[in-house]
Amino acid sequence: MIGPITRRKSLRLTLSAGAALGLAAAVSAPALAAEPTEITFYHYQTSNYDAFRAILDDFEAENPDIAVKDVFKQSQQITAEVQAALAAERPVDIATVIGKNIVFFLNNTGAVDMVAASGGDTAWLDGYLPNFLDLGREGEAIFAIPHAYGTPMVYWNKEIFERAGLDRDAAPKDWDEVLAFAKTINETTGMPGAAHLHASMGDYGTMVMTTNAGAEYLSRDGTRAGFDSPQGVAALQYWQDLAKSGAMPIASDREWTAAFAAGQMGIYITSSAALRPFVAASEGKFELGVGNYPLFKDQPRRVNNSGAALMLYAPEGPRREASMKLLRYISQKEIANRWSRESGYMPLVQDPLSDPAMAEYVEGFPQVRPVIDQMSQTVPTAVWPARGTLEAQTVIRAMLDELWAAERPASEIVPEAVAEVNAALAANQATQ
Description:
15 strands, D-Maltodextrin-Binding Protein, domain 2, 18 helices, five-stranded mixed beta sheet, 2 domains, 432 residues, alpha/beta, single chain
């Protein structure tokens, strides 16, 4: 999906058409403005596209010598799409990259170090939260900057809670309460009690559950999985128990999202990026509750972020200079906070409430406060290595399918899956 034609682009097209008709002869050569440098920005924004494009339009207005062409690609295909474009020498100057695939991109697509592209200047990066900026760091180099990250939250329907005899204003604090509340809702209302994102994001859902329980999902060097630890097995057994209870029907994330937005589900645990859509969907239907991700007892809250970073591919010359100007623009606290307010993604800068516009926004939209409060408990998403990733993620999806079938306990299923994941990682490591 290509973004709408801005007024400036429309004028440019009109002039070009006029030239084709011979009308340009009436215009002297010195009067013709130089064509702006066009940069191509790959992304997968859909529901937040208007907010995304508005920021690009404002950048163009401030920089009339630069035009930003946005190119939509499906999030799950964007890795292959960027690789294909680069191989075919089609323009790709900036690309949105799923955070967990940064290392894969770094090793397979020739991303550009933004510090080097800035002539060694790093001051423009100082405003980012370090735990998010570190996702794209390799030594002194920065190959990715955070852009659209969320953190999983608890959403609940207060009317359904009340119908089920639960305290409408009390979110489930831990996983024992999630299971208990979900069973009560299901038994008293016949509705699904709870859902946790997992179907289309199986790898991410597994990571969040096991990390929060205290397991090491994936080693920092990406060579071995560790979610077969006692904590990881216990977390996935809980997930299986929730499915077996009947309170969490197995469906796609798309179906769950639609059901919750329609007021047909008690509890939905999903990304903070869903906050604004849920607020809009619930208006006039039900009162929405928003709370922090549930705890496992005796464990601190450790919640993985999810989302995307930006990587630079522009070749040396005008396109790289223009691309860096855009990345610097996006990195400003005011712009980063604006993107957060308009998209629902987390504010990825330090001390976001020092921005008066952000402070005013939170005061008028208090549902976002739990998201900001949880940022300090957010840990980086596990980053998969350059090779073995697809094989490993296929194994994890198959593991979840078997968990939902509930014919064997997690204590048997999970170690077998981890052994397969580690074998895939080792085999692919040996070929590098």
